[in-house]
Amino acid sequence: MKKQILTLAMLSALVLSAHAQQPANQLLPYQNPNLSAEARANDLLSRLTLEEKTKLMMDASPAISRLGIPQFQWWNEALHGVARNGYATVFPITMHMASSWDDALLYQVFTAVSDEARAKAQVAKKSGNVKRYQSLSFWTPNVNIFRDPRWGRGQETYGEDPYLTTRMGLAVVNGLQGQSFDGKPLAAPGVPASDQSKAPQYVKTLACAKHFAVHSGPEWNRHVFNLENLPARDLWETYLPAFKSLVQDGHVAEVMCAYQRIDGAPCCSNAKFERQILREEWGFKGLITSDCGAVNDFYMPGYHGTAKTATEATAQAVNAGTDLECGSAYRTIPKAVKAGMINEDKVNQSLKRLLVARFKLGDFDKDETVAWTQIPENVIACKAHKDLAEKIAEEGIVLLQNRNQLLPLNRNQKIVVMGPNANDSIMLRGNYSGYPTSSTTILQGIRNYMKGAEVKYVPACTLTRNEVQESRFNLFREGMKATYWNNQEQKGEPVATDVMKTAINLSNGGNTVFAPGVNLTHFSARYEGVLTPDRDEDLTINMGIDDGCRLIVDGDTIVNMRECWGRVAPIIKPLSLKVGKPVKIQIDYTQREDVAVMQFDILKTSKPTSEQILAEVGDADAVVFVGGISPNLEGEQLEIEEPGFKGGDRTDLELPKAQRQVIAMLHQAGKRVVFVNCSGCAIAMVPETENAEAILQAWYPGERGGEAVAKVLFGEVNPSGKLPVTFYKSVNDLPDFLDYTMKNRTYRYFKGEPLFPFGYGLSYTSFEYGKPTLMQVKSRKRDGKAADYKLMFSLQNTGKREGTEVAQVYIKRMDDVDGPIKSLKAFKRVSLKAGERQMVSIDLPRKSFEGWDAQTNTIRVVPGTYQVFVGGSSADAAKTKIEVKVK
């Protein structure tokens, strides 16, 4: 036996040697761009050792020089712009963009995003060292259904409806992957039409549908949660449609499996979902990647517990069909193969899918062959993209209330701006964002629009406290220098440096590194800078730390905290500044394991009284209070806990008490209040509907959010946004957060009275719908059962100014007593001048009538009588309906 093994090893070495001696001017099959990606992948597979295959199945794939394989970083983010990779255009959060109900504009946005992505990847490639977040695989869009407004990551989704999520998700995928709006490959840029058939068809970037499947919080238990006995109807009719469409219609390149278990099996080792549904039923040909650290969850103590070791966890994931791991467990693939836990054929199947994807990108080919590489660097954060960010920000702002037509404001009014989000540029970005070259806060946007007229700003309170905190971080005139080491002792050469220009707020939540090249855990950092006071004042140093730190002020060690595991340790220290006496501050940070958090700011804190606030407001004609919550309170596995928040999720839906009190005080004093709410989720703003005459939902509106909000407030832009989620009156209206069934959730099943319904949004004009008619289009099949329909109705602008309405079409099967109250099946943006009437035509393919058939346990068109509704929201649509019998 030993002799046989030796012989095989010798043969393998001879084959590799022969490949290495290939003449330099003769292309090997995998190097030939004229061959198919599949043929090239098969050839390259035959040349790789098992150890090399293993390296290529991990998210940070190193170069393999002997075969000319370049390094590749699978983990990159582009949720609403290229993220975590330096300067880029920062578009509004996805929830904001979903409120535009404009998938054509969203397609333009992600065409711009992929332009910037290609340009940035080319810059990184030329540097000779491609770091994390710098390649061409982007783990977006998030097409999970936002089933519960308490979920902190709901801001990353496109709302609560499967159809709207599907439409928006397809626009993202097509824009990222360089496909046309309807999903077809685009002509290669710069290649004459006559030569298109000769040019290799390269994908622009790789998009990824996540998180598969049935994932929408809570954040705090996602590594241990087991979802059991979910009704098949909810699975197939609510949670899976967007994924299915992105796979079959959008040809999405990647699907990411989620953290939790379903019926006992972690999603990343769940053969039912990965093999049966994705591969066999839907015909998915792309690759499946794990969420970051998800495979480690199989065996980590206190987590899923489906495996005892990393090797066993790896075998479970690979055998189920997880092709790529973001994490460290897949290093044990050779060990698992040797132990017979994985057949190497399974490794080859997975790796082939990864190689095919890279060949389709042109990752192995010369730049002159791949036309996408010619996108110039000057597209990054260019004016056209910034204008696009402003355009979709304008379309996604939702006017929720406008009593007494307080809006639009005018420049002749005396306006005071208040609230904790008014002058916060970080809030504008949401989570998973890039870094804008410039941004405009809502305060700045209003001041710019007033063109020199005085606009007083009165903070009044913080997000959660009746106090005012002003950052003095700007007193670090040169910023703070950040230096990082991939050890805990700050020894040796640093792996990264940076300059912090704003308050430090870093964490490894979502497996995010502090800076490119820095470990997720077991690292250290030093932050150092000089405060240059411009006045005498008493301030506080505010820090949040997990794990350890030393705080040194002018050479004196003020804090020496060796470790803090399992929670963020708050540190508040007084600091007195004197003009002419600079203060040197140094922070030595140590991260040991698990959670990493580093927060630091210099703050001036005061507690204004109601009398002081009202005196500041004076005789203002209107108070614009910009409040809500922030990405620092809602997001992915956040460690900060405030009243109403837990681990990034919410425990109630109300506006924080401190803000409620200020708005109520203003109303009681007779002030006319415009409440601008910034959040990634629905807020139960019941008191605010009484205490504010006008309410705008501005979400987290991106780098140009200030301009967009100002244009809506002053009427240059007539709001047209519509809610992609239901705004409830209270958390008491909702089922338990851990209940994943759809009963009494979202507009499709909620039986109560919402505060603001799904699809709702006002305009500065008004619209009137005529009685609809439904016309059957000629059948495409002889049996007459595949007929399509065309819905026709008149729509009139009955107001005095031009505006855009989003006409929404809903359908219900009348004999489906357990089914949805109604389900969105089509929508169309219609722009009308004042007084204009237009006949609107909306196609309803036969598949619009698909739904759950309990008799066959399938999604299909069940013959019967259906109601078709049309209107300006899910509630208004109930007023205008028609019946149709579908065979």
From TrEMBL:
N-terminal signal peptide: 1-20
Single annotated GO MF: hydrolase activity
Keywords, comma-separated and alphabetical: Hydrolase, Signal
Species the sequence originates in: Segatella sinensis
Family to which this protein belongs: Belongs to the glycosyl hydrolase 3 family.
Record-given protein name: Glycoside hydrolase family 3 C-terminal domain-containing protein
PROSITE patterns: PA14
Lineage top rank: taxon: Bacteria
Pfam name, any one: Glyco_hydro_3_C
Domain PA14: 475-618
